[in-house]
Amino acid sequence: MGRDKIKDAPVARPPARSVQTGFEYVFPSIRGVQAGREYYVTMCPLRLIPRLFVFDEEELPLEMRAQRSLNKARVPEIARYVLDNVDSYVFSALTASVDADVTFTPIEMGGPNERVGTLTIPMSAKFVINDGQHRRAGIQQALSENPELGDESIAIVMFLDVGLERCQQMFADLNRYAIRPAKSIGVLYDYRDDMSAVTRLVVSRSPLLRDLTEMETSNLAQRSRKLFTLSALYNATKTLLDGLNDQSLERQVDLAAAYWQLVAEQFPEWEQVYNRETTAGDIRSDFIHTYGLVLQALGRVGRSLIAESKSQGKWAAKLRLLKQIDWHRSNDALWEGRAMTGGRVSKSSSHVLLTTAAIRTALNLPLPPDEQRAEDAFTGGNK
């Protein structure tokens, strides 16, 4: 049934072009049809990618191109990803249009394999990337440092070119519903980043954090029964352990788990939610101590405590003073302008500094220079 559909479907082909002569590319391919138009899925050696897909955004104005401007800052990141993970990197398919008369030769006419065959493209053809120009540029840079990667391959979805307008529409359609994954699920699934591993282990060691941490999204719905997001704990733990890269991962997990356990003991509201004595929504609406801003500020405080002493007894003595702080959102005298603007919690860098300064002051800890400058500017502007 599926074979008949492809065979009998009306196929829109581009206008006939003059017959091309000369050398040709021959790719193993699978033929398909979308919106009545033929397309092909093929594999291409990485070494051919820079040659096939030339990208020079300076040649044409934006309205005459079929791609966005290249973000050159992303290219070294992609190349480094490949070079650092030659045994495990993963690339999704490139999507491209080809402006030439192509020939598809099935390996079997009329049989179950008529969709599978070879795609012959003249070397004079012009290729346009509709989706994946950053991957293409990253591949080119990676090949310059490790030419042996050239024998590996990447999938390409190849459409027959029907003009600039169609190519631009393809780019818009391909990116219309593209959504960047939430940072929380990125932390959950990332096994290359050490701090992601540390954060996951810290959460897994604590029954409270394990129960009250949202692992997939980075925003909590109003009715969510979670207090924290994994991405917020990641940022806070990264801040907490900053400068401890010389420590083993196990040691970092031990330090972070012990610290966040001590912090949790200072907030009875967290325990109440864990014990189902109150709802997470009520706590989040009444207090600010579950927000990523405060967690990051507590991470900064903890980093100073760890630098001063590895003794958890000394940390506990200081952290017990957290109970003396009025964490209610309604405490405008303390939090408005520091943690909040117009009653809304803000996570800007200046708010992090001011919130940390308030916590340090309550814990009788000295302010580092950056927090002192922020505090002086804040209090000076409110006198």
From TrEMBL:
Q: Which domain of life is it from?
A: Bacteria
Q: Which residues form a coiled coil?
A: none
* Pfam families named in the record: DndB
Q: What protein am I looking at? A: DNA sulfur modification protein DndB
Organism name: Jiangella alkaliphila
